[in-house]
Amino acid sequence: MMRRLVLFVPLVLFAVMALLFKVMIGHDPTELDLARKGQALPDFTLTDLQNPEQRWTQADLLGKPYLLNVWATWCPSCRAEHPVLVDLAQREGVRIVGLNYKDDRAAAQQWLVKLGDPYALTLFDEEGRFGLDLGVYGAPETYVVDAQGTLLYRHVGVVTQDVWRNTLAPLLNGPAGGSQ
Amino acid sequence: MILPELGHWALILAFGIAILLATVPLIGAWLGDRLWMGVARPFAVAQMLMISAAFAALSLSFLTDDFSVKYVAGNSNTLLPWYYKLSAVWGGHEGSLLLWALILSGWTLAVALLSRSLPEEMVARVLGVMGIVNVGFLSFILFTSNPFLRLLTNTPTDGGDLNPLLQDIGLIMHPPLLYMGYVGFSVAFAFAIAALLGGQLDAAWARWSRPWTTVAWAFLTVGIALGSWWAYYELGWGGWWFWDPVENASLMPWLAGTALMHSLAVTEKRGLFKSWTVLLAIFAFSLSLLGTFLVRSGILTSVHAFAADPARGEFVLMLLLITIGGSLTLYALRAPAVKSRISFSERSRETFMLVNNIILVVATLTVLGGTLFPLAAEYFGKEVSVGAPYFNLMFMVLAPALVIFLGVGLSSQWKDTRPGVLLKQVPLLAVVSVPVAFVIPLWMGELTFSAVLGMFLASWLIMATVRDVQHKCGSRGWRVGWLKTTRSFKGMVLGHLGLAVLIIGATLVSNYTVEKDVRMTPGDAHTLGDWVFRFDKMDHLQGPNYLSDQGHFTVETTEGKVVGQLHPEKRRYVVSGNMMTEAGIMAGLWRDLYISLGEKLPGDEVWAVRLHVKPFVRWLWLGGLLMALGGTLAVMDKRYRFRRSKPAPQPEVSSSDASSAALPGETS
């Protein structure tokens, strides 16, 4: 009888997994809702990735709308996304602020040397505190922030030309984003 | 044109036929009605004809640029060359599902045609179970992902273009091969379910499903190798495995399939591990379905992900519940729960194969866990990302264990190995492998732990295989002895050597790749290792659907002898605006020279260029091909060809065990 019960183990494990799928199915990872939507960017004081002496706070970023891109060298999708960001920065002059998330400073610096640096500046969030305040789910993520430092939108996952054209660009250049 | 409608009708007809195939033969087998069982084969043929017609209709819509079909408009473009138009058929979600169904019908047809020697009941059940799976997939296509939907009111004049990443020869072949593997496991699955339904889990069942499993496994191996090769040259950063959820989705059935293939061998030869083998057959195909689910439900983010659609996700979950849940329930109720009376000692080949089976299953679960853990963590409100470090660490532990036991297993015998034999054989493997493990890394460059370990394992495996061949050849001498061995033995040898070659490739390319990022302008030269890379000039070309900056590089040895020309490109696809890097690669058995163009830097024709020298990288895919070749050879064994005339031989089972297997319900 015991041996017969053992044969039920795979079924039970599968049931648990199916339950997990069931509860997670409704959510679309690329469109997580943003708890802080319409609110100001959370406070932070972070060092610059390239220059550990340089400290940035949210006040330094005000004045022009920008994309806040969360990335890390441990994230393969970030690598796939990177050429798009470089292209946006170079070709269209988009202002992108990098948030290097839970990463190694030297590795991240080297990454930018190798793959090109699309960022106006890169914040170094080694322990992920700011990421936690912001509600970062994983890398890559890209936030649209307007000139007053208000969070307008979050995109989870890789930014492609399509995402830029159809979603991010209208927000960044739109009435809320563009009003300076 | 009415062509898409014809395709749509063919698909609906195929759906109807699949429903008949999924019900009539199974009821016939239950009632013992020969007429009802007999319709399975004609239905399998009709189903294949209808799905082929649907697939042909969709292909023709692509070739004729019929942008009134929504799926064509979204995935093709007039500027595409004809062969990419054809491969665009499976470039998106809907079409790739249709390919899935086509391949499933193809496997069903193959089973129908090549099963003359099987009992009628078994054929009816196997084809019926495959029909059930196809009903699931065809309903998924028809109700949520129909590729024949039209855009009649505002037909676009041109299409949105195929994702440039997919405009490549590797990607023409990759999905069909991968699906041949995924779907091929449905045969072993169907045999397992049929055996559970019939209550006849004997060695004959294992014997029938073995060649099918091996063929599917060989296809999957080539498919995965091709995917890795494609990522290597197309993504432009010289990596070959990324532990991306979609890659994991193909690795899991491969690992489970590898375990199944070996477990089937034990079940066929010795009548052991019956319940375990059936479970693995269910497991391998379930993971193939799960892979399809993970990619399409949008619950995991991935570079490969198709568009997320909750309705589709719900539908696939239902399908999974029915197929996997149903088969596991059947397994729990019907699998033999009695302890086998066939004995084997702890020094027998059975023991070592069981250990390696468990290691392979643990590896599969490790990948499954790593892939699903972020999802579970998210449910509990935590943010977790499981990346390459986790998977690499796990495989650095599991792969050595697997290879060590594989070497010991090859030195052992069925039932029992005489005491002392292993103690004599195994140290011999180590005596040869330890020096190799140090000499090769020293010769390549720096001595690192992973390089020493990798070379030790490769040498261990090769030595054990060679010793096994020597043992098999006996006193006949190498040449005559080798020719006398069966094809399935040769296949096994080739497969294991393929694994060794793969390990060598992975170890050396991970440890001894040299890369350099440089700023170059035409006329510059850079030295990397033993090679000089000279940047001759930059061309600006127009491709069929892209604009390209093409670099011309000459590679010379440090003595000044020209080795060849490389042409890395940076392409801008006009319709979608996507940028693509096409690496310039000079392939070689001992090393690849690899150049990828970075971005254009300020100044006249100043470019960021990345130079790589990748030793032994080809061995990765060569190893995969050898493994697949081994599988192919094993299937060509004589005993499979003559099975028509001879009844399946009885395995070495005691009579009490055979009767208990036939009546599993009464044994627990």
Overview of this protein structure:
The complex is a heterodimer of chains A (180) and B (668). Chain A contains 7 helices and 7 strands; from the N terminus they run ααβββαβαβαββαα. With 180 residues, chain A is an alpha/beta fold. Chain A has a single domain (29-178), classed as 3-Layer(aba) Sandwich (Glutaredoxin), CATH 3.40.30. In chain A, strands 2-1-5-4-3-6-7 form a 7-stranded mixed sheet. The longest helix of chain A is centred in the middle third of the chain and has 17 residues, at 76-92. The relative contact order of chain A is 0.19. In chain B, the strands form 2 sheets. In chain B, strands 2, 3, 4, 5, 6 and 7 form a 6-stranded antiparallel sheet that branches. A 4-stranded antiparallel sheet of chain B has the order 1-10-9-8. Chain B has 21 helices and 10 strands. Among the domains of chain B are: 1-160; 418-511; 514-616. The longest helix of chain B is centred in the N-terminal third of the chain and has 32 residues, at 203-234. Helices cover 63% and strands 11% of the residues of chain B. In chain B, helix 6 packs antiparallel against helix 7, helix 10 packs antiparallel against helix 11 and helix 11 (274-297) packs antiparallel against helix 12. With 668 residues, chain B is of the alpha+beta class. In chain B, strand 9 (591-601) and strand 10 (606-615) form a beta hairpin. Classes of the chains: A alpha/beta (180), B alpha+beta (668). Chains A and B meet through helix 1, helix 2, helix 3, helix 4 and helix 6 of A and helix 11, helix 12 and helix 13 of B.
